[in-house]
Amino acid sequence: MAPIKFGVGQSVLRKEDDALIRGKGRYTDDHAPATLHALVLRSPHAHATFTLDAGRARTLPGVATILTAADVKDLGGLPCLFNLPDTPFTGPDYPILADKEVRHVGDAVAFVVAETIDQARDAVEAIEVNWTPMPAVIGLVNAVKKDAPQVWAKHAGNVLFDVPIGDKKAVDAVFAKAHTVAEVQIVNPRVIINYMETRAAICEYDAKRDHMTLTIGSQGSHRLRDILCDNVLKISKDKMRVICPDVGGGFGTRLFPYREYALVAVAAKKLRKNVKWAADRADHFVGDAQGRDNVTHARMALAEDGKFLAMDVDLMADMGAYLSTFGPYIPHGGAGMLPGLYDIKAFHCRVRTVFTNTVPVDAYRGAGRPEAAYVVERLVDACARKLGMTPDAIRRKNFVPPKAMPYTTATGKIYDSGDFAAHMKRAMEVGEWKEFPKRAKAAKKLGLVRGIGLATYVEVCGTMGEETANVALGADGDITILIGTQSTGQGHHTAYAQIVAEQFGVAPERVHIVQGDTEKVATGLGTGGSASIPSGGVSVQRATRKLGEYLKELAADALETSIGDIEISDGAARVAGTDRSVSLADLAKKADPAKLNASETFSSADGTFPNGTHLVEVEIDPATGRIEIVNYVIVDDFGVTLNPLLLAGQVHGGTMQGIGQALMEQAVYDPKDGQLVTGTFMDYALPRAADGAPITFETHNIPCTTNPMGVKGAGEAGAIGSCPAVVNAIIEGLHREYRIEHIDMPATPERVWMAIREHERLHRL
Description:
Layout: H1 17-21, E1 36-42, E2 48-53, H2 55-58, E3 63-67, E4 101-102, E5 108-114, H3 117-126, E6 128-133, H4 140-143, E7 159-166, H5 168-177, E8 180-191, E9 200-206, E10 211-216, H6 221-233, E11 240-243, H7 259-271, E12 275-278, H8 281-287, E13 291-302, E14 308-320, H9 329-335, E15 346-355, H10 369-387, H11 391-398, E16 407-408, E17 414-415, H12 420-430, H13 436-445, E18 449-458, E19 466-473, E20 479-483, H14 492-504, E21 511-514, H15 532-559, E22 566-569, E23 572-575, E24 581-583, H16 584-590, E25 597-603, E26 611-620, E27 627-637, H17 644-663, E28 695-699, H18 717-738, H19 749-764
Parallel strand pairs: 1-12, 10-11, 14-15, 20-21, 27-28
Antiparallel strand pairs: 1-5, 2-4, 2-6, 3-5, 7-15, 8-13, 9-10, 9-12, 13-14, 16-17, 18-26, 19-20, 19-25, 22-23, 23-24, 26-27
Helix pairs in contact: 9-10, 10-11, 10-18, 14-15, 17-18
C-alpha cells in the first residue's frame, strides 16, 4: 500500500505555525479578562529570619489585597511526589509563602494584588520587612562538609537521603582483581531553564458556583488541577477548571505546580475578582525550578583487553532549599541509566541528595538521563585513554550486541532493541572520522587545535502512565481528538493529525486537537518524558481505528454491502473498487452519536529506549580559548519516524540546549551571601544560532518491540547525547596537544585558556 499523503512517515509541515508566525497565538498573558494584577515580594537573602509589616502598603491607591503567610496558613504546601520504596524519607514543608524564615534568594514572602501592575509594584516596595541574615550554604560539596550551615535542622548534614543502587560487595570484589581502573571526577553544572514565554496564571472566580477557572501555560492541565486541589487548596476537583492555551516552551520545568498558581486562586476567591500574575525574567530566574547540578565520581574496572568489568559511582545531587515535585527522583531515577549502552555485569552507585540555600532543582529536558549519559561517556573516553585504545574501539568492545536483546542491565532496565555499533559506525562515516588527522594537521598550521569526539547514549522514556484519546467525527466530516497531553511547541496537532490521516486519509486541516482543558478533556497526564507519541500517539491510533470500524459499519448499511468491502479515504467511505461512496459528513448526519466517537487508553509500562551517536568536531584557538563547533553528526535510533521534519526539529533543539550547557550555561551563586550572580541575560549566557553548527542528522531505526507503533520517543534525545560529545571532542584536542585530560562544563574560553596556560606553566617547570 502506498504511503498516505499526510500519514505516518511523511514530512508534513506544522499546521500550528501559521497562527504563531502571524502573531495570532494565544498565550496566558494574552487572556485579559477585566482583572487585577499581582506581584510577588521575594527574599533578597539566601537564608534569613524576618518580620513583615504590610500595613502601610495596604493603604496605597489601587491595592486590593496583600497575602502573607498568615493568610495562607490553612493551605497545604507544594508536594514532592516521589519517595523511595525501600527507605522512605520525609521532606521539609514547601510553604506557599514563607513564614518567618526564608531559605533562598527569591523565596516568596508576600503576594500583592492591585488594580494596575504599577500600583502593585509600589505596594511591594512599601512592605516593611526586617531581615536578620543567617549563615547560608552554597554548593553541595560545601553543604556536606562538617560544620556546614544547616538548611533544615531536621536534615543533619544537609542530606535528604543517602542510598545505594546495585551490589557494592560484588563491585568491590571485581575492582580488587581488575587489570586497571579508570576514573573521572566531574561536575554537571546547574542551569537555568529559559523558555521563551515566562510563566503566568489567571484565576477567574465564579461566586455563584464557588468555582475557579485557572488559565496557565503548563505541560499538563489535569496534573496541575489535581495537585492544587488535593494537596494545596484542599477543595474538590470539580471546583476548578484548568485551561492551558498556547505554551511557549516547557522542557520539564512547566510540569510542576508553583506557588503563584495557588496564590492567584486564593486572591481571586477572596476578592471575588479575576487576578492575573505574570513573571518577568527576573522572577523567572529565582522563581522557577532549575536543572542538573550534580557532582559525580565514577570508576570503571577494566580487563587488559578493554572489557568493562564493573562500574562504581558516587553521585551527589543538589536539591536546592526545598523539594520540588519530582526533585529527588531525578538523580535516583537517572542513576538507573548509568550503565549506558554497555554490557557491565557489576554495578554500584551511591546516591546522595543534598539541601543548599538555592532555588529548588527538578526535571530539565531528559531529567537525569543527560546527567547519566554525561558521566558514563566521559568515563568511557577516560578508559580508552588509560588503555591506549581509540574511543570507537573501546565502545565497540563493550556495546550490548543486538543478539543479546532483550537485555537486562545491572540496574534492571530492559533494552528491547537496537544496534549500537551500527549507528556509531554510520556517524563516523558521515563525519569522515578516518580523515580527521588531515584536518587536524591543516588546523595546526593556522595555529588552531582540532578535536574530535563522540558519545553514544540511551535513555528511557514514555513511562508516565496511561493516556486516553477520544476521536470523534463531526457533522462537517472533520475529526476532533480530545487528549490530555499538552503541546509546548513540539507539534502535537500535526503529529496526531498524521496518525488520523493514516486511517482516514484526511488532510491535517480537517483534524482538530483539543488539549489542555480539564472541562473538555476527561483525563490526562500532560507531556513529559518524551511520552506524548509513545503513549498518546498509540491511544490516538487505536481510537482512530476503532472509530473507523464504527464508520465502516454505518457505511456498509448505507451502501448496502458488507463491512469487509468498505474502505475509508479522502474523507469518504467507499466500496472498494467501485465509485459508490458516502462522505463522512453524510454518515455523521444520519448516525447514532454513540457511533461517531471512540476512546482508547494506552500505557507503556516497560518504556522505550531511544539511543544513538553524536559526533562532534571542534576548533580551539589556544590564544583565546575560544571554541568553534565545525562539524556535528547525529545518527539516532527512534524506532519509527512519525514526521521527519518534526523529528529533526526536536533533535536540533535539544542538541542546541546541550551545546549551551557544554560551552556557556551555568547558574552561579555567590558562595558567601547566596546571591544569584547570573540572574539576568546580561550574566547568564544562552546559545545563539552562531554557537552551533550545521547538524547532519540521520536515523538508523530499529522498531521498538514494547510499543505498538514501534516508536521510541525523541523529545529529549538531543540534550542527552550532545554534552558528552562536545566535551569529549574538546578534551581529545587538548589531550593530544597538551596532555590535558579534564575540563568541566561549561568549557568557556576562560576555562580552556587557563587550562592551556597551566599546562605551559608546568611544562616550563
